[in-house]
Amino acid sequence: MSRFADIVLYLFMLLVIIITTYPFLYIFSMSISDPFYVMQRKVWLWPIGFSLESYKTVFNDPSIWTSYLNTIWYVVVGTGINLILTLTAAFALSRKIFFARKTITVFITLTMFFSGGLIPDFLLINNLGLYNTRWALVLPVSKLTTYYILVAITFFNTIPESILESAKIDGANDIRVFLSIMLPLSTPIIVVLVLFHAVSHWNSYFYAMIYLADDHLKPLQLYLYRILVKNNYKLMDGIRDNYRRTMISAQLRHTVIMVASIPIICTYPFLQKYFIKGVMIGAVKA
User: Fold this and answer.
1) What predicted TM-score, i.e. pTM, was given to this entire model?
2) Which has the closest alpha carbon to 140: 155, 127, 157?
3) Residue 215, domain CATH
4) Does 197 fall in a domain?
5) Is residue 241 domain-shared with residue 175, that is, in the same domain?
6) What is the predicted pLDDT for the residue at 63?
7) Same structural domain for residues 275 and 146?
8) What is the DSSP letter of 159?
């Protein structure tokens, strides 16, 4: 019976792998296949023919490089701010000697159910002079995320209190304890938070539509939005042959998806071991 259950479980996991892998493989195959077969919708799994014409078209567009640099800036700066705020808040709220930890935790938890709304946010950003600046995409979303704080608090609680007490006896203050003890022992949860926040910033496009007006400030996801949703193909303005334009346009959507997805996907294999450990320890209370 146990062997039968294992077989069923393996088959189910294989089905899940196929379901999750197929869309990515399909888009990749469409992006490198011959545009003629892509336009005829004959590509279903593996590439038919080979062509990098759509990739050349995309990478010859200067705006995609500007969008890439903008996105990298938003990811690095935004993730750094999110990480500092989350870890410092979680450390303070994980200390049992902090008299207001329960009250502040309740107030932070309430933000999971209530928010100010888009209009007050926009008015605030506009009044602060952040509209149409890079900081408009970093500071509004740097607010504390309750779930991440709770996960970090749970992880900090797994660190023995005796270590912190020993550091206190040796004369270390709270800042020294946080920097020299807590952070070096918290690599798994730090990696998890970096990954979560980085993916969030990388995929963010809504705030960019609301707060940014200049094209040179817009991130990569708005470039993707312009191609997929608005069917705006300015990057093909230099192509005069209508037949070639038609073929490339049929393939362009898949190419842009690949260009926007590959960098963030490539980070997962390098962070996987920390990611699994951090999620398991930070999500289950001892």
Assistant:
1) 0.80
2) 127
3) 1.10.3720.10
4) yes
5) yes
6) 82
7) yes
8) S
If we measure between CA atoms, which residue out of 181, 108, 182 comes closest to residue 150? Answer: 108
Q: What 8-state DSSP symbol labels residue 86?
A: H
pLDDT of residue 285: 47
Single out the residue of 20, 53, 15, 108 nearest to residue 254, CA to CA: 53
149 and 237, same structural domain?
Answer: yes
pLDDT at residue 269, as a whole number? 72
Which amino acid, one-letter code, is at 261?
A: S
Q: Give the C-alpha distances (Å, rounded to integers) separating 96 from 4, 66, 153, 270.
A: 48, 47, 11, 35
Task: Give exposure, 132-143, as e/b (b: 16+ Cβ within 10 Å).
Answer: ebbbbbbbbbbe
**Are 238 and 141 within one domain?**
yes
- Residue appearing with tokens 């007490």: 165
> Do 117 and 210 belong together in one domain?
yes
How far is 110 from 217, CA to CA, in rounded Å? 33
The answer to whether residue 233 sits within a structural domain is yes
* pLDDT value of position 73: 92
> Do 90 and 166 reside in the same domain of the chain?
yes
Q: Is residue 46 part of a domain?
A: no
Per-residue pLDDT tens digits for 16-59: 888 888 888 888 888 888 877 777 778 888 888 888 888 888 88
**Surface-to-core class of residue 72, CB atoms within 10 Å of its CB (0-12 exposed, 13-18 middle, 19+ buried):** middle
Structural domain count, the chain: 2
Query: Residue 96 CA to chain centroid, in angstroms?
Result: 32
The answer to whether 127 and 254 have CB atoms below 8 angstroms apart is no
In a domain, 149, yes or no: yes
Rg (C-alpha) for the chain, rounded Å, is 24
Domain of residue 146, residue span: 53-283
Position 197 scores a pLDDT of 86
pLDDT mean values, one per 10 residues, the chain (286 residues): 80 89 87 80 82 81 86 90 89 82 82 77 86 85 76 83 78 81 83 85 85 86 76 60 66 83 78 60 48
Q: Are residues 22 and 117 in the same domain?
A: no
